[in-house]
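Hey, can you fold this?
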Amino acid sequence: MLAFVTGATGFVGSHVARALMTAGADLRLLVRPKSNTQNLEQLKADQVVGDLCDPDSLERGVSGCDVVFHVAADYRLWVPDPEPMFRANVEGTRALLEAARKHNVRRVVYTSSVATMGFTGNGSPANEDSPVSLEQMIGPYKRSKFQAEQVALAAARCGMEVVIVNPTTPVGEADIRPTPTGRIVVDFLKKKFPAYVDTGLNLVDVKQCAVGHVQALEKGRRGERYILGGENLTLKEILDKLAALTGLPSPRLRVPYAVALATGVADEIWTGRMRGREPRATIDAVRMGRKKMFVSSAKAERELGWDIVPVEAALARAVDWFRQHGYV
């Protein structure tokens, strides 16, 4: 089986590529010309130079492949101009699916996000059937992923073998950027967490998340979404786990929502608009944090054979990796 993988230079994509290699697949990877290829070390794979905004490179990538794993995405919670994010996440997905259809790819696994789910304000776990709309999506990242997911669902309704997976918040090693989740770990290690807000996330071991992608290929139903989640934890519980792993103190001061929002406004104006750098705290991130992003992975457990594993091992690997690679 020849698998074409987008996003393999990134965090989740590199683990998906390794999971596929372990399962015996041959790999072809889409690699942007200026990508950091550190995560491709020890991967035996063909490479196609291009990106999601280059349809010709997508054609070259999928040609002759049996399956496609579309993991790549522009994952940032703040951008000075959202248009390139929509072009990559939405139109890139559309172009890749069209290339897969044209070249008779057997099946596509599309990596969406838990961000597309319908979360409530009371902390009760969301699932694949929770009501949601585009109007509920906060910020360009969530809106672009929601729209891209709709493109994938539409392709499935038209007969394409497309399965959607919705990872929660992956954590583990090889988060080279790092992602917003990885920055929580790095900031904690740098003692930049003097306080916390009352929010919550579902953390999933990135290695287990990669296994779930392979399970979706083998067992997922066309046009279905599958949440790949782990433990539902408040931010305070995550920081306490990091404290237990590292011996560093966990913050005790909880910041009210209004104060956090004011901090996001100030940081976005000063760091983002005036200095042209990505803010540590953004308005959209604070607004998203008002709802605990707790989910149920029961559907994936039932249909894919998904296992929920404790997150401590993944947090420990993340801590070790960030320390060993000079992030702290």
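Oh, and this one too while you're at it.
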Amino acid sequence: MARPVVGIISNSNLLNDDYPVHAGGTMNTDAVHDVAGAMPVLIPADPRLATTEELMSACDGFLLTGGRPNVHPEEYGESETEAHGTFDRHRDRLVLPLVRACVEAGQPVFGICRGFQEMNVAMGGSLYPEIRELPGRMNHRMPPDGTLEEKFELRHDVRFTPGGVFHQIMGAEQVRTNTLHGQGIKAPGARVTVDGWAEDGTAEAIYVSGAPGFALAVQWHPEWNAAGDPVSRPLFEAFGAALRAWVECARPGRLRTA
């Protein structure tokens, strides 16, 4: 059987400050290839280039990556402020309907950081523009200086619901993670279950209740050292298992060859 194909949502960027590109981090492709056991394909974050139906037909699942731009607050009924930062409206318009369609079809979808926030907004939830400004919350943002290793250093604990989805995947009720985000969940969307929290109460792990397939997301970055980290590896292994189940049992209408 051919490997599952994972569409990795890219981010719009400028190469050399003036050349527009669709970009994706190699740690995402490595995690999908090395741990999930799938073939990674970068998806341009632009709904003008492919429909939801075309993407779902071409890919077996999707990885919603992190990114510097934030989901536009218009998508959850709020007005734009300076605290909301920058936006990528093309990505909003591609990913949000894609999430909803994948959830309903049971097609695997795994959200990371911005992808975590996209999953919540796609299901009708809202976001805080800046977590660190809330009373009692810590600064969850990436350190402004240092090496990649220092920026992705494990910085806080995440506790899971005892016996819940993430507890079962991890085999532990509490793990230690990195943290590189400014925004966070304000109100969970319909069917969005918060299953993990940081020490300050910030939502860190969610799943879509009643989804017929893998529909999980985390606020931290498990793609960093995914093959070697005992917290990251089980997540991508679970994603890979869901992808293979989709290919073998659930995916309609496409011939797979060995």
